[in-house]
Design brief:
Blueprint lengths: L21 E5 L3 H12 L3 E6 L5 H5 L2 H18 L15 H25 L3 E4 L1 E6 L2 E7 L5 E7 L2 E4 L3 E3 L12 E3 L12 E5 L3 H12 L3 E6 L10 H13 L3 E4 L3 E6 L4 E5 L4 E4 L1 E4 L3 E3 L33 E3 L10 H15 L17 E3 L4 E6 L2 H6 L5 E6 L4 H6 L5 E6 L6 E8 L2 H14 L3 H5 L10 H6 L2
Parallel strand pairs: 1-2, 1-7, 2-3, 7-18, 9-16, 10-11, 10-16, 11-12
Antiparallel strand pairs: 4-5, 5-6, 8-17, 13-14, 14-15, 19-20, 20-23, 21-22, 22-23
The structure holds flavin-adenine dinucleotide.
Length: 477
């Protein structure tokens, strides 16, 4: 479970409280830990099987270490730019061993807190590798301190498979953890790249471009289309491209990487249009593939669809075997930690029969997401371009942060707030924010979208002054 996302009070009348139901979960990422916590709270007998770290890849490899690296990069840049704020400092230096220790400390702390929270709810945690051995049985293989292996078979009334995903490796590349890196080799790498070639210009790719350019590395980004973040609003992508160019990042647009070779002291990336780029290191950020192998899904009769994602048969995230659920990246829905957590919570409620009373289905179209570049980019709900594409009439209001006192005080006037609403009712349908703290500020629009609030609800909120949030109120006018 994501720390800070504690379950709220759940009132279950004693008379209707179900008998202890045996719920076995394979995979302790955001989906698995959240499902475990909620189901245990509702009275289930929960066993959670995790082979690495409680908190999952989200904590060990993805969300947490990447944002910790970005935070250190931001500190490095802030110190380098301190003279502009009137502070003279010596030239800063990145201490890689110290950075590695810091990231390890954060991951360790989160794992400890996550484990304590689960245990406090009565969840049994088994450190081992789980697999289905039948529709109602899970086998867990554990390794003792002396290296000896043993297996335990668990019977279950309900099962959740939430084993996540791992980086996709293209046929033309062979990661070696030294020069050819996946995202998992970069927290931090053994040395700061002199010249990093990033392959993949989606969310992960641009975060790594930002991360390493803030540490002072020269970066080249291979962009297969004509725009970084091809799925995003062009106006939003343009702000990021401007920042990349300001940092000296080289954008190789309209080029698809088709070859990657190591040289004695670097890498050579070949593109399909004949262009070749030499760098000291390459980083692969071309998406992920699901961890669905070796799980015994066939033994349990669970259907697996295209690309290895487990097929869901309804919005409760049940597979074709009614008491076996799938959540998180393995479900092939929206690959976000926040979505995985919410799926876990909804599954726990369904397993425990809570969905017979009124409840809200998970709506993926209302998931807020953020990109932790500088400026940050965040959006939620209906995008202006998507409304335009389907011919839907919307009202779009945009206010630049430069109009707020706080942006001037921060010395950073970049970016804007955009709110998309229904012109007839004023109901907020979506929005995007580019700028400092966009990932935090988007929560206001996310709440409005989920709760069906109107723009007037935002405009009439008494916001703090001076604050960047004032741009939100102005955009809602
Ligand atoms: C670089 C990067 C940065 C990201 N940053 C963000 C971000 O900032 N915000 C955000 O919302 N999302 C982010 N994501 C996406 C996010 O990490 C995933 O969507 C999220 O981790 C999915 O959660 P999950 O529960 O499906 O699985 P995971 O977090 O992948 O956890 C699955 C767990 O299952 C365990 N497991 C697998 N097989 C077995 C088995 N057989 N037995 C026992 N255990 C097993 C694994 O060890 C793992 O711990 C990022 C992704 C990447 C690649």
């Amino acid at each position: 479970m994501t720390v800070g996302q504690r379950p709220g009070p759940l009132i279950v009348p004693i008379a209707s409280k179900p008998m202890a139901l045996r719920f076995v979960i394979i995979g302790g990422g955001p989906a698995g830990t959240q499902a475990a916590t909620y189901a245990a709270r509702l009275g289930a007998e929960v066993t959670l099987i995790e082979r690495d770290v409680v908190g999952g890849a989200a904590h060990l490899w993805d969300c947490v270490p990447s944002k910790a690296m970005i935070a250190t990069g931001a500190a490095y840049e802030d110190i380098s730019a301190a003279a502009e704020m009137g502070v003279q400092v010596d030239v800063p230096e990145v201490d890689l061993p110290l950075l590695r220790t810091r990231i390890g400390g954060i991951v360790g702390r989160l794992a400890t807190v996550g484990r304590q929270l689960l245990e406090s709810q009565g969840v049994r945690i088994i450190e081992g590798v789980g697999r289905l051995s039948g529709p109602r049985t899970v086998v867990v293989a554990t390794t003792g301190p002396d290296g000896s292996g043993s297996e335990e078979e668990l019977e279950a009334d309900a099962i959740l498979v939430s084993t996540g995903s791992r980086p996709r490796i293209p046929d033309f590349a062979q990661p070696d953890g030294e020069r050819v890196l996946t995202t998992r080799d970069a927290y931090p790498p053994r040395e700061l790249p002199r010249h990093l070639v990033v392959i993949g210009s989606g969310v992960t790719g641009v975060e790594f471009v930002h991360m390493f350019s803030s540490f002072g590395s020269k970066v080249t980004l291979v962009v297969s289309r004509q725009q970084v973040l091809p799925q995003k609003d062009p106006e939003v992508a343009a702000v990021l491209e401007e920042d990349f160019l300001r940092r000296g990042v080289k954008l190789l647009k309209g080029a698809r990487a088709v070859g990657l070779d190591r040289t004695d002291d670097g890498v050579v990336v070949r593109c399909d249009d004949g262009r070749v780029v030499e760098g000291s290191h390459a980083l692969l950020a071309i998406g992920s593939i699901p961890n669905s192998e070796g799980l015994g899904l066939e033994a349990a009769g669970v259907a697996v669809g295209d690309g290895g994602y487990v097929t869901t048969s309804d919005h409760h995230l049940r597979t074709n075997v009614a008491h076996i659920y799938v959540a998180g990246d393995l479900s092939g829905k929206l690959p976000l930690s926040s979505v995985a957590s919410m799926q876990g919570r909804k599954i726990a409620e369904h397993v425990m029969g809570m969905h017979i009373v009124s409840h809200r289905h998970l709506d993926y179209d209302k998931a807020a997401s953020a990109i932790f570049t500088d400026p940050e980019i965040a959006d939620v709900g209906l995008a202006e371009a998507d409304a335009f594409a389907v011919g839907r009439k919307v009202r779009v209001t945009k206010v630049p942060f430069a109009t707020t006192a706080k942006a001037l005080i921060n010395g950073d006037t970049r970016g804007f707030v955009k709110i998309v609403s229904d012109p007839a009712t004023g109901v907020v349908l979506g929005g995007s924010i580019v700028g400092r703290h966009a990932a935090e500020l988007i929560s206001v629009i996310a709440l409005a979208v989920t709760a069906g609030l109107r723009v007037s609800d935002i405009a009439e909120s008494l916001m703090v002054h001076p604050a960047l949030a004032e741009a939100l109120a102005d955009a809602a006018e």
